[in-house]
TrEMBL record:
One of its GO terms (molecular function) is hydrolase activity. InterPro entries: Fumarylacetoacetase-like_C, Fumarylacetoacetase_C_sf. This is Fumarylacetoacetate hydrolase family protein. Keywords: Hydrolase, Metal-binding. SUPFAM superfamilies: FAH (SSF56529). Pfam families: FAA_hydrolase. The keyword Metal-binding applies. Residues 4-171 form the Fumarylacetoacetase-like C-terminal domain. The keyword Lipid metabolism does not apply.
Length: 191
């Protein structure tokens, strides 16, 4: 059903600052193949894994027709090593089961969309469209121009500050809200 996943990096100022990254002069994109898509959090055994909660859009006819919650799982230590060498990030971002999604639901425009992540009962991430450097309308149009968007593609729009390590047994609640109303909520237990 789902096809490729196009991810937006460095789209929230405070997340850029928390990782000491450079500010982009244009959107940062990377792609996760279909083998990344999952609805479960599977902790890898070869490197520490970080969660990054995101507002995600399901594409049909080159536009966002549904919204969902997603985790862009990241092997941060591997990513840091690759970035220092100027090498691609795929080993750290496009590994199996690294794009974890809730169901996708209809929504009414981009205004007021927010993501929340609760880890083991504590709020760890919260951010919305108003905090994004590049807004969803622009991203979808730009991504289509560069990569082409097909029915069943997913756009992950970036993560706000508050990312961290995932351990086996961690319990997460991921939510997408619009103007304070919960559109979708999903519980995940890492194993």
């Amino acid at each position: 059903m789902y096809k490729k996943v196009v991810c937006v990096g460095r789209n929230y100022v405070e997340h850029i600052e928390e990782l000491n990254n450079e500010f982009p002069t244009e959107p940062v994109y990377f792609i996760k193949p279909n083998s990344c898509i999952s609805d479960e959090i599977k902790v890898v055994d070869y490197s520490p894994m970080h969660y990054e909660g995101e507002i995600c859009f399901l594409i049909e006819n080159k536009r966002a027709v549904a919204v969902g919650f997603g985790f862009d799982m990241t092997l941060r230590e591997i990513q840091t090593k690759l970035k220092k060498k100027g090498l691609p990030w795929e080993r750290a971002k496009a590994f199996k089961n690294s794009a974890v999604f809730s169901e996708f639901v209809e929504f009414n425009g981009f205004d007021g969309l927010e993501v929340e992540v609760i880890k083991n009962g504590k709020f760890v991430q919260k951010g919305g469209v108003e905090l994004m450097i590049y807004k969803p309308e622009f991203l979808i149009e730009d991504i289509d121009k560069i990569f082409g968007l097909e029915d069943g593609d997913i756009v992950m729009s970036g993560t706000p500050k508050g990312v961290g390590v995932v351990e086996k047994g961690d319990k997460f609640i991921g939510r997408i809200l619009q103007k304070g109303r919960v559109l979708v909520e999903r519980e995940f237990i890492a194993y």
